[in-house]
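Checklist before submission:
- one chain only
- standard amino acids only
- sequence pasted in full

Submission:
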Amino acid sequence: MGCFFSRRRKPAQGGQLPPQQPAGAGQDAATGEQKAPQYSWDLRAKIDPKEYTFSGLKNEAVGRLPGKVAGQQFVIQDCENCQIYIFDHSATITIDDCVNCQIFLGPIKGSVFFRDCKDCKCVVACQQFRTRDCRKLEVFLCCATQPIIESSTGMKFGCFQYYYPELALQFKDAGLSIFNNTWSNIHDFTPVSGENNWGLLPETAAVQDYVPLPSSEELKAVRVSTDATKSIIPITRGRRQKNSDESCLAVFFAGDYTTANARKLIDEMTSKGFQLVQTKEVLMKAEDAHRVFQQSASEFIPLLEKGPVVALEFNGDGAVEQCRSTVNEVFSGTKVFVSESKASASQDVDNFYNFADMQMGM
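Returned file contents:
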């Protein structure tokens, strides 16, 4: 390997090195005048806040295409009867004083905060979700932490379901896992005795009936689908009533095909009529494995060092037998934890999700 030597600067008279000037400093060749120095921070692209704001709009359809927000903060305020689409990932988004709007918000690395909004329908993916002083919001939600409502009434929630080709990478850029979605686990910060400020949307609720697909030529270029089978986020039952007293836990360990394998099992099981209750992606340690996998822990502990596990809970009569059979047929070369029996399965589910909720501070 060769060495690189920099040429030493010769000291000026008196033995002192002349002071180094920032790039761009010195005399202007044409005028002889001293030029102002240019520092590196002057050369950065200037961000125009107007590019990251929708304000004071009425009866308009507006949006930002993939790549146009690129992780910046965004502000939506004082809009009425508008359709708003943010087809990109962002840092945080605040929505203030909006009325009767339909809003799609792509993955948000931090928080989304709705304040003083009413009669809005939304599709949102975020790390944190919060509302204050809102009325009648209907939200298809993917949220990594427990959603919080405060001084808000008539709130309805459903599971995020949406697809366009750039969305999976935007989730990664925002640091969100498609398997961590607590959409139905709402915390009401200001409950009222005898009243319920929130509920769940009907299971049959179709996203496009709430937030229609964009109609402008510019935004139609984004190839959106609201077909549940194409959704980037697996559709879960969340806290809805389970149809059966039999559930089954399946856990995939980190590897090149973890996400694809988990999706494949979801497709196989749901196509046979079983329901996906919840999913989770989380890091585990050896002591966690002993608590969750019990006597079979030693088989799985070496796999934990590779990264987070992905867990799936299925529900339905015969779920355990069907899940074990599918894993044996489809994933014969892959180590997967699957509940052994109906009797042990409910304990498996409780053990895993209690651990996962503690890990994630739920």
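Reviewer check: The two ends are 53 Å apart (CA to CA).
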